[in-house]
Amino acid sequence: MTGTLLSFGHGYAAQALARRLAPRGWAITGTTRDAAGRDAVRASGAEPVIWPGADVAPALDRATHLLISTAPTPDGDPVLTALRARIAAAAPRLRWVGYLSTTGVYGDHAGGWVDETTPLRPATRRGAARVRAEADWQAIPDLPLHIFRLAGIYGPGRGPFAKLRSGTARRIVKPGQLFSRIHVEDIASVLAASMERPDPGAIYNVCDDDPAPPEDVIAHAAQLLGLPVPPAEDFETAEMTPMARSFYAESKRVRNDRIKRDLGVTLRFPTYAQGLADLLTRET
Q1: Residue range 115-162, pLDDT digits in tens
Q2: For 55, 78, 145, 176, which has the most beta carbons within 10 A of its beta carbon?
Q3: In this structure, what CATH number is given to the domain that contains residue 50?
Q4: Residue 248 counted as domain residue
């Protein structure tokens, strides 16, 4: 299968998908906010467009598939703010639309399990903004929308090794804290599988099989590098920015059964240990 993809906010995960699709003959346009991002967009196999700024209407008119990776603002989803009417008009002819959301929409579950049927009770402003954005996209009639709730993303250039090597990595310990993660290549696999099997209205959690305390991940990465494990710091007394502290407002385990059952996805990196081992081979 091939098509024409318009990717709004063509960043880390979208670029991983484009590198998979472009060799198959897909035509891809990726938006970036400024000229500095054009080279990365082009390197992924997409034609860069600076947006907001340039007219994306021609690319939207050509598109068979849309991917939205842009973060919501206090005014709502920026793509819908600018282009809701055009997207609504295009809805009947589009074959697939993917919206990249976050598992933060579920809020805090004190380490308990959540799945796609769990009520949305975000504990942060970021999570609440995503809930509103999901609803705004779902409100467009006839749109073949698929929502992907991503766990914490890591991959080449986004692992803990650089901070460990520079001595800036920290092991913040909050008892009972659990995060789910996902390797960027597995995100690309899920998105590509959904494009092959469109199921408008579907929602998918995108995470690995191994929710774990963040301090365990840092410790394992240090051991892989043969470096000292950073000392544990108590969450309650650690000096952190408000943004960093907010990431610890939620603790949960996220189920990923649906991507396996409905999309036939086999994760390449089902645990953070496997993912970090792969990153080590790429970054050394």
Answers
A1: 999 999 999 999 999 999 999 999 999 999 999 999 999 999 998 999
A2: 145
A3: 3.40.50.720
A4: no
C-alpha–C-alpha distance, residues 11 and 70, integer Å = 9
Residue 235 within any structural domain of the chain: no
Number of domains in the chain: 1
Q: How, if at all, do strands 145-150 and 113-114 pair?
A: unpaired
Whole-prediction pTM value?
A: 0.97
| Helix axis angle, 125-138 to 78-90, nearest 10° | 10
The angle subtended at Cα 70 by Cα 206 and Cα 164, nearest 5°, is: 65
Query: Whats the size of the chain, residue-wise?
Result: 284
Distance, CA of 235 to CA of 248 (rounded, Å): 9
Contact predicate 262/202, CB 8 Å: yes
Rounded CA-CA distance 235/204 in Å is 31
